[in-house]
């Protein structure tokens, strides 16, 4: 996955609390530099001390650290050249405090150059067998890592990802990072506020047969790249009051066939906005692509845009649920 055109947005009060300097816990935590053991992607991992020079790959992972107020524990981040307009996010100042290591992705070289003592990344979010940038490769260099839970491999095949519902993955990572850095109260407060925000949207969401069917379109012309049940859009769609038409796919981000989209006839298409092909270009492709002409979402021009940072595991997920929920309630009222 690549980095987006980030939209200016106002998240839950919890985000403002944690990212804008509220005195919840001392930054960097209060626990001593003793070993701590966490469960990450089904593995028990022990860290010898509180990391002081963390590097992150991609916008969602970077903002997990920012949302917890841990920018002073970071040595840098990697994300593509256009990370978008971040002037409206609660942690905008953190982007100016932390070094932008790479406008592509992390490598062994820039991790070593940053003198990193922890790498936060994920399969498909920086880590790659093909590129030789893996947790095992970093371990040989004496650098520990933490895997984004959305990206955990599930054993279905060599690349399929996801081991738990997406919001649970977000909460698991916030909890683990809170423990690792000694900011458990801050993490717990953030999670509690996220849960409340999501519950408030869910309580007003369409129910039963009124729930619109939704297809997530990331990219691809010959075959669409989309979200199965383990990527963040699954619960963004579900909690907002829709049904992900690909929720039977036991993977996170993956490729499907257009014929399956046509067969499932979504009422709404959510476009993921990022990269060289912008949301408007993607929208025009969908509206003009002949095989989709009889799909309800295309016939009624029901295409809703969310940012990449909304749709990967990140602290922006609850806000995305709220915005999509507002749109789906409108759709449900006209069907």
Write up this protein.
- This protein has 335 residues and is α/β, with parallel strands linked by helices.
- It contains 13 helices and 14 strands.
- The protein has helices at residues 13-19, 59-67, 92-97, 108-113, 135-140, 166-181, 184-204, 232-240, 258-264, 279-288, 296-299, 308-311, 317-332, and strands spanning 36-40, 43-47, 54-57, 74-78, 100-102, 118-123, 126-127, 145-147, 213-217, 225-227, 243-244, 253-255, 268-273, 303-307.
- Strands 3, 4, 5, 6, 7 and 8 form a six-stranded parallel sheet that branches.
- The longest helix has 21 residues, at 184-204.
- The chain is globular, with a radius of gyration of 20 Å.
- It starts with 12 loop residues before the first helix and ends with a helix.
- The model is unreliable at 1-24 (pLDDT under 50).
SSE diagram, text form:
Elements: H1 13-19, E1 36-40, E2 43-47, E3 54-57, H2 59-67, E4 74-78, H3 92-97, E5 100-102, H4 108-113, E6 118-123, E7 126-127, H5 135-140, E8 145-147, H6 166-181, H7 184-204, E9 213-217, E10 225-227, H8 232-240, E11 243-244, E12 253-255, H9 258-264, E13 268-273, H10 279-288, H11 296-299, E14 303-307, H12 308-311, H13 317-332
Parallel strand pairs: 3-4, 3-6, 4-5, 6-7, 6-8, 9-11, 9-13, 13-14
Antiparallel strand pairs: 1-2, 10-12
């Amino acid at each position: 996955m690549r980095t987006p055109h980030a939209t200016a947005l106002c998240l839950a009060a919890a985000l403002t609390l944690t990212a804008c300097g509220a005195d919840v816990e001392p930054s960097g935590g209060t626990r001593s530099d003793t070993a701590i053991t966490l469960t990450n992607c089904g593995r028990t991992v022990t860290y010898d001390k509180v990391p002081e020079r963390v590097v992150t790959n991609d916008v969602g992972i970077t903002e997990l650290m920012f949302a917890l107020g841990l920018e002073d524990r970071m040595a840098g981040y990697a994300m593509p050249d256009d990370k978008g307009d971040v002037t409206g996010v609660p942690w905008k100042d953190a982007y100016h405090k932390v070094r932008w290591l790479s406008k592509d992705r992390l490598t062994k070289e820039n991790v070593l150059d940053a003198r990193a003592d922890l790498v936060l990344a994920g399969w498909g979010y920086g880590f790659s067998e093909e590129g030789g940038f893996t947790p095992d490769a970093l371990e040989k260099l004496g650098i520990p890592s933490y895997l984004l839970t959305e990206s955990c491999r599930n054993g279905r095949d060599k690349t399929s990802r996801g081991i738990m519902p997406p919001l649970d993955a977000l909460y698991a990572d916030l909890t683990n990072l809170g423990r690792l850095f000694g900011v458990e109260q801050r993490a717990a407060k953030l999670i509690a506020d996220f849960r409340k925000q999501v519950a408030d949207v869910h309580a007003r969401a369409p129910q039963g047969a009124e729930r619109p069917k939704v297809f997530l379109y990331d990219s691809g012309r010959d075959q669409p790249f989309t979200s199965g049940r383990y990527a963040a859009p699954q619960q963004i769609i579900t909690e907002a009051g829709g049904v992900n038409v690909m929720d039977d796919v036991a993977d996170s981000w993956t490729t499907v066939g257009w014929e399956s989209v046509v067969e499932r006839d979504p009422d709404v298409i959510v476009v993921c906005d990022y990269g060289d092909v912008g949301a408007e270009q993607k929208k025009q492709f969908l509206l003009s692509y002949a095989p989709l002409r009889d799909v309800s979402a295309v016939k009624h021009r029901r295409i809703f845009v969310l940012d990449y940072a909304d749709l990967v595991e990140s602290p922006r997920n609850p806000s995305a649920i709220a915005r999509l929920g507002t749109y789906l309630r409108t759709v449900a009222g006209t069907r």
